[in-house]
Amino acid sequence: MNVADVANRVRRIFGDDDGVQITDDDIFRWVNDAQLEISTENEELLETVATSDIVSAQAEYTMPTDCNVLRSLMYNNMRIRGLSFAEFNEYLDGFKVPQNQGGYGNARPEVYMVYGGIITLFPTPNENIINGLRIYYSKHPASVGNMADGLGVPDRYHNSIVQFCLQQAYEMDENADMAAFKGNQFSAHLQKLKDQEKRASTEYYPTITTLPGDEMDCNFGGFYG
Questions:
Q1: Which element (helix H / strand E) includes 53?
Q2: Sign of the torsion angle spanned by Cα atoms 12, 15, 19, 25
Q3: What is the number of alpha carbons within 13 Å of residue 74 lying toward its C-beta?
Q4: Taking the complete model, does pTM exceed 0.85, yes or no?
């Protein structure tokens, strides 16, 4: 599916086959807004992995610019714990530095924080590793700006995007009833797909039971600082 498929359906349903009322720019803007809404509502939709080389004595690494939700971070195939900005600084304050060492020193990282799009590892790595940092995250879909552009979400969301665009078109036409109707259709269809994907995730992925003492290892709230 591409943007032209969405535009043709929207204009035909709205009764504007010639594109007199609904311009291409309207379509691009609405499709981008719809895809962003979809990816925000369903954080597990566009899961991907990025890698970065580890550089000895370098603590900071750049987050992917299309990151929506950070899932996990692995250093040399080992998971490290995410902390919030405050927790990270508290961790540093409580870190025991050997008496014969003038500073924190470099070692295998144990924790990280994300602040301002920058990942900070601690301790600072003491080795060079090609693709040593693996970033597991859900991404935002790429923006569209051409009728030939493909959609940034799976084809099963095509109908949701059409409903969202029609909602915007009816709002532009000051037809409040139809705008509300299409808005409800969009929300209902999005929720249905989200529920289906959650069931599939439960079926194919094992449930992890959190045991006493595991809370710090499952501190997902620290991913965004």
A1: strand 47-54
A2: negative
A3: 11
A4: no
